[in-house]
Specification:
The protein starts with 19 loop residues before the first helix and ends with a helix. Helix 8 (195-209) packs antiparallel against helix 9, helix 14 (315-329) runs parallel beside helix 20 and helix 16 (364-376) packs parallel to helix 18 (394-402). It contains 25 helices and 17 strands. The protein is 40% helix and 15% strand. The strands form 3 sheets. It has a 7-stranded mixed β-sheet, sandwiched between helices. The chain has a 5-stranded parallel β-sheet with strand order 1-2-3-5-4, sandwiched between helices. It is an alpha/beta fold.
Length: 620
């Protein structure tokens, strides 16, 4: 096998060109086999095999540096830098990350996980290189989907000022997670399909190369902004910004890629290499369903079907059903997504109410201010977004929604620990950063029925409101407890004395298990479903303080700025004689791994919480 010859960075350069195709096939087979067992980002990685090979053939890592935008397409890069053995533990706790990680390898020069960042990081690396008087190339790989993010254009604007080499590789597969949307997608589609331009350019260059002095003239045409590109594609976007454009080039032809990278190395300043790839290349199920194989669970290689079929609805299914009903009942309800109609559960709403569905692309900042505009215009916008990605729009939430007190609903998906994607995707900060904003209100449901009730309440609420819920199977316990949602009020599920468990959202299920364990060993215990994190229900705290010696708050959020911190501050302010135990996530980044295992590692599983309560209670 050719792949067995590669043990470290640079080994690919010892592979003869006639074996490149075989190596690409072996890499794809390896990735499909491993990811079918562990799960992971498959389609994006299959699409960049030849591109990654060409980068490693043309550049010297780690002296040269490559920044992978988002980073979920860096599996081949990990293979070619000696991390083949790590794929057996890919995305498992303590194992290899599914994203570039500086602590893993010197060939990973920048940690990534969110979109549209690679050009900015690359410019920073270029500036550091030049200031330190070092040599080497810097390459930023960015997908066409990431070019819907405004940060990429801020960086391109800055890149146009460079006078030394900086290479931007545009990996163009016409996809982000779902199909791309917007003007840049249409523009790139024109570049992909303009055969007239490509054939004319090739013909002119070949003709000029056959005549005396023609090579010099061809080179001049390549360098000038008024060259043949401008004749056939007026207003060439990148060149008009001062960034040299090369391509498009077949992203699955190693030889052509190496040729274009050789050209790119000679450019003084920023140069963009436009590479055409196919997401899921080489594995038929991923080619047919690239969105499904963006982040795949373990699957059967022969069919591409998941090995573990879901038996119960997840929270996204419940949200999807409720959105359809809200859309039917209220023609002012509109839905917004940032390139994730499937992941957030908005696909059915999109199909039924296409005029009231908006996919803005990977552009969370724009999505929030767009929602503010819709609300100011009289609509009821619901922005469905992963917790980790809403962080990118903090200023817009504060400045454009909350200062104006506009009725925007934030449906915050993947709140809490999400597992295998790790630090960049854990949704463990939203209670903290949203709680800091005046006029914001925050809810969290205990089960699938309460998610539906809270979403209906949120649509009628006159102001900014966030509804946060976790990834995965929707909890269907405590069905018998379904009292109406009242603003700012908690729900007492079981009322006894001595110990009060005050749980937020997903932690109500854990609190129910903790209560059962405590009662088995003789402790009396109240269970409160907090419902609202902002405002907290101070009335229930006052009420329970007289009959309880210990309050235990439980939340799937970091400690700083969370629900428990607010409860403790209130008790201190009012000088209520109740001790508090705050069960939270640690104020640190939580690495990748199975969610159940992470619960145990950070101490928020039922067994760990029960043990801490007993220790705290005994000392009271």
């Amino acid at each position: 096998m050719v792949l067995e010859k590669i043990d470290q960075a640079g080994d690919i350069k010892q592979i003869p060109p006639e074996e490149y195709r075989l190596l690409a096939e072996e890499i794809r087979s390896f990735l499909v086999e491993k990811i079918s067992r562990t799960g992971g980002h498959l389609a994006s990685n299959l699409g960049v095999v030849e591109l990654t090979m060409a980068l490693h053939l043309c550049f010297d890592f780690p002296k040269d540096k490559v920044v992978w935008d988002v980073g979920h397409q860096a599996y081949t890069h990990k293979l070619l830098t000696g991390r083949k053995a790590g794929f057996d533990e890919l995305r498992k706790y303590g194992g290899m990350s599914g994203f570039p990680k500086r602590k893993e390898s010197d060939c990973d020069c920048f940690d990534t996980g969110h979109s549209s960042t690679s050009i900015s990081a690359g410019i920073g690396l270029v500036a550091a290189r030049d200031l330190l008087g070092e040599s080497g190339y810097v390459i930023s790989v960015i997908g066409d989907g990431a070019l819907t993010g405004g940060m990429a254009y801020e960086a391109l604007n800055n890149a146009s000022l460079l006078r030394k080499n900086f290479i931007i590789v545009l990996n163009d597969n016409n996809m982000s997670i779902a199909e791309n949307v917007g003007g840049m997608s249409e523009y790139l589609n024109g570049l992909r399909t303009n055969e007239r331009y490509t054939s004319f350019k090739t013909g002119v260059e070949q003709s000029l190369n056959r005549i005396p002095g023609g090579v010099h003239l061809a080179n001049q045409l390549k360098k000038t902004k008024s060259g043949i590109k401008q004749l056939f594609i007026p207003g060439m976007f990148f060149e008009d910004m001062g960034v040299t454009y090369l391509g498009p080039v077949d992203g699955h032809d190693v030889g052509k890629l190496m040729d274009v990278f050789a050209q790119a190395k000679r450019v003084r300043g920023a140069v963009l290499v436009h590479v055409l790839t196919r997401k899921g290349e080489g594995y038929a199920p991923a080619e047919r369903h690239p969105a499904r194989f963006h982040g795949a669970e373990p699957f059967d290689i022969a069919t591409g079907l998941p090995l573990n079929k879901r038996k119960k609805a997840n929270y996204q299914d419940v949200f999807s059903t409720c959105m359809v009903k809200l859309g039917q009942r209220n023609d002012k309800v509109v839905a917004i997504t940032a390139a994730m109609p499937d992941g957030t559960g908005l696909k059915r709403f999109k199909n039924l109410y296409p005029d009231r569905f908006f996919d803005v692309g990977i552009a969370e900042e724009h999505a929030v201010t767009f929602a503010a505009g819709l609300a100011a215009g009289g609509m009821r916008p619901i922005f469905a977004v992963y917790s980790s990605f809403l962080q990118r729009a903090y200023d817009q939430v504060l400045h454009d929604v909350c200062i104006q007190n506009l009725p925007v609903v934030f449906a915050i998906d993947r709140a809490g620990l999400v597992g295998s994607d790790g630090e960049t995707h854990q949704g463990i900060f939203d209670l903290s950063y949203l709680s800091s904003i005046p006029n914001m209100h925050i809810m969290a449901p205990k089960n699938k029925w309460e998610l539906s009730d809270m979403l209906k309440f949120a649509v009628e609420f006159d102001g900014p409101i966030a509804l946060r819920y976790p990834r995965g199977e929707a909890y269907d316990g405590l069905k018998e407890f379904r009292c109406p949602i009242v603003y700012g009020k908690s729900e007492i599920v079981y009322e006894e004395e001595d110990i009060a468990l005050l749980a937020v959202g997903s932690m109500v299920k854990t609190a129910e298990q903790v209560r059962r364990k405590l009662k088995e060993i003789g402790y009396s215990c109240t269970l409160v479903n907090a419902r609202f994190v902002k405002p907290i229900d101070t009335d229930v705290l006052d009420e329970l303080a007289g009959s309880h010696r210990l309050f235990v708050t439980l939340e799937e959020n970091v400690a700083s700025g969370g629900y428990g911190e607010k409860v403790r501050a209130y008790l201190t302010e009012k000088e209520l004689p109740v001790r508090t135990l705050c069960v939270t996530l640690p104020d640190e980044y939580v690495e990748h791994g199975n969610v159940a295992l992470l619960y145990e590692e950070v101490g928020i599983d039922a067994e760990s919480v029960t043990k801490r309560i007993i220790e705290k209670y005994i000392t009271c």
